[in-house]
Each structure stands twice: as structure tokens, then as C-alpha cells.
Amino acid sequence: MKILITAAGSRGDVAPYTGLGARLAAAGHEVALATGEVFAPLVREAGLEFRPLPADPRGAGPAATKRELMRTAAAFMRRLATGMRGALTDDTDLMLLSTTTAPLGWHLTEATGVPSLGAYLVPAAPTGDFPPVVGGTRSLGRFGNRAMGRLSLRITDRLFAEAVKELRTGLGLPPVAPGAVRRRQEAAGWPVLHGFSEVLVPRPSDWRAGLTVTGTWWPYHDGTDRLPREVEDFLAAGPPPVLVGFGSMPADDADRLGDLAVTALRRAGARGILQRGRAGLAAADDDILTVDALPHAALFPRLAAAVHHAGAGTTAAALRAGIPSVPVPFTADQPSWSARLKALGAAPSPVPHATLTAEALTDALRLVLNDPSYAAAARAAAGRMAAEDGAGQVVKAVDSLRPRE
User: Are residues 252 and 209 in the same domain?
Assistant: First the structure.
């Protein structure tokens, strides 16, 4: 089958689809991944066809108001809709749609007849088991959690309203509200595969049929890859270090964050690797190394612990490596993943970025480095996750489908 995967957002929103696409290609499918230009090297390294999307939602800064963020997000959805039309070719047999691209992909299916499956990295359907992953971690009870989940979907519908209107006009489809299409998909049992581990999020007890949790989809990683020589030398020069990195999270206080991280590492008696990321962390000394992006699969098993923003991918990677975490959530679903790490015993209470201090980070580091229960919990989670084959479950689901006539 000729499969088009569409994904948008930061590196953590895209990288898992490179590994998923590679597994589908290894099973004999022709796979294209449509996403932002900045990720073209990742896509091609995985042996997949790259198709460009205007898929970077950045625009408003970290201090933007909610109204500015909503306006920026809505404009992004309109650009994304145009890009998805261009990415879909006439010979496509199947679309795999991410959480962000699904509300647009449904209309492409309606117009072209190309079937689709959901390929989500987070739980999006309402449930009474827990509150929406974006919007807080405090449970409101089963009724309240479901109500908040439905409200979250209605807010998403608003963000897509203009994009859907323009897309349907361009496709020659009659006008319809995004929420009506979403409810139609739900009623029809549209299948959604979820690429996270039940070790972190057990499948909700009240989800409808067709919503499947497969296990984590890991970013493509060539097992023969080697870490840069300077990293290998640093790792060999002393005990396992602690990684401090916040991925794609922007920060207007990079100097403070770097100084704060170094202070906390030294007070905790740990060597450190700072990952620049979008926050721009940097420091240099005998016991501190600054690096750019490195594959989690190669680096994380060599660490004592990781201080990170608790994005879905980084959270799973730390557990897979069997190392404890110090979550420093910034926004969106990160507080939810932080809470999951704490519940597993693989992390202490999160230290939110907004209230991060050297003292708080020092205390958290001392906990995970000196109390062996945190590492033991992470290793136990790693053992359970090792039994999962998330990408393999997707291959089975795709192989069960017949291509279009």
C-alpha cells in the first residue's frame, strides 16, 4: 500500500512517525511522511519519502496572551489545511493522521475516498478515568473528567473552524461545522491507534471500540549510530552524568536556566550534559558538557537521570532507558506526563518551569540520585515496556485493510 503519514508540531510531535514509517516500509509498504521542512533530514534518514507541510506552529512567543495564542493556532491550521491538500497524491491508498492533522484529514477522505486511520501520540477522546491531558492534572471525578474532555474537543473545533471552512470550499464539499464531522467520525467508529505505553496511560475503561493503545512508537534510530567522540570521551571520564534539556520548549531566560542547572548539578554532586534545545542552554567546564540534539536511544541508557520538560517522547525514552526523571513541565500535556512519572515512582514531584529555582532543582536531583527507589521504579517500567511492540501493532492494523479498488 502507498501510505501517507501526516504530522505537525515540534520534534517530539514528528520523530515517532519516522520509526513507525520505517516499520511500515520494512513490511513492504511505500511510505511518505508529510511534515515541516526542518524535519526533512529525519524523514529521509529513516528511508521515507518526505513531503513538505507548513507544519511548524510557532509564532506567538512564550509570553503571549491566550487570545494571541488562539489566533496564532487558527492561522496555523489554515496553512496546514492548504499543505495537506498538496501532500495527498492520487495514488495514495491510506492516510495515517496525527492528533493535529486528523480534523483536516477527515475532509480529504470525504472528498477523495482515500481511507484514513488515526495515529495519535496522546489520549484525546474524553474519559472519566482522568482529565484531559491538556488542561491540568486534578481529577474532577468521572462526570467532571468527561465533561472537561468534551469541552476540550469543542475548543479544538473552534480552532479548526476557519481552516475547515476554506478546505471544504476548495474541495467542493458542502459547508459543515468541524464538531459535526468529529461526532460523525466517532459515531462511525473511526479507528484510532495510540502510540503510547499502557505502562504510562492504561487504556481508559470507558473508551469506545476502535480506540486502541498499541505501545510507544519510537523515533527511527540506526542501531549502528555512534555518539559524537566528545560525548563518548565525556561519558568515559567519570560516573554517569545527568542530562538537562528542555527539547523544543522556548525560553526567554536561557542564561538563568543554564546557570541554575549548573548550580543544581554541582550542589547535587553530579556531572551534567546540557542539551541546548530551543531554550539555548549552554555551559562549559570539566564536569559539564553542552550538546545539540542526540538520539535518546543512544544517550539515555548511559545517564544517571534526566531533567526534562516531560514531553511525551522524552518521558517514554527515560522510562525505556530505566533512568529516573526530574520533570520540569512548561505547558500543554507536560504536567500530565509529569504526574504519570511521579505515580510510577520514577520521578519526584514536578518542578514547573514557572517556579523553577536552583534550590528546588537541587532537592529533586538529590532525591533521584540518592534514593534507589526512583531508579528501581524506572527499571521496572522499562521491563514492562520492553514487552510492547507499538509499531508492530500498527503494521498489523494496516495489513488488515484492503487497498482501494
Answer: no
CATH no. for residue 8? Answer: 3.40.50.2000
Helix ranges (H only) for 113-140 are none
- The pLDDT score that the predictor gives to residue 58 is 55
pLDDT in tens, 20-30: 999 999 999 99
Tell me, yes or no, whether 195 and 287 share the same domain.
no
- Structure confidence at residue 405 (pLDDT): 46
Q: Which residues of 95-106 are buried (b: 16+ CB within 10 A; e: fewer)?
A: bbbbbbbbbbbb
Grid cell locating 133: 491531558
Q: In this structure, are 77 and 170 located in the same domain?
A: yes
- Kindly state whether residues 197 and 238 are assigned to the same domain: no
Cβ atoms within 10 A of the Cβ of 230, count? 11
Of 302, 321, 296, the C-alpha closest to 378 is 321
Range of the domain at 248: 229-385
Read off the pLDDT of residues 335-386 as tens digits, 9 standing for 90 and up. 999 999 999 999 999 999 989 999 999 999 999 999 999 999 999 999 999 9
163 and 271 in a single domain? The answer is no
User: Which tens digits make up the pLDDT trace of 58-84?
Assistant: 554 554 566 777 788 888 999 999 999
Residue (of 320, 211, 295, 381) closest to 11 by Cα position: 295
Q: How many domains does the chain have?
A: 2
The whole-angstrom separation of Cα 40 and Cα 53 is 10
Whether 224 is covered by a domain: the verdict is no
Question: Would you state the cell numbers that stand for residue 392, as one nine-digit string?
Answer: 508492530
22-31: string of b/e by CB count within 10 Å (b at 16+)? Answer: bbbbebebeb
Q: Could you give the CA distance from residue 382 to residue 217 in angstroms, rounded to a whole number?
A: 14
Q: Is the pTM of this model over 0.85?
A: yes
**Per-residue model confidence as pLDDT tens digits over 83-97:** 999 999 999 999 999
Residue 80 within a domain: yes
Q: CA 22 to CA 150: how far, in whole Å?
A: 34
Question: From CA 12, how far away is CA 160, in angstroms rounded?
Answer: 22
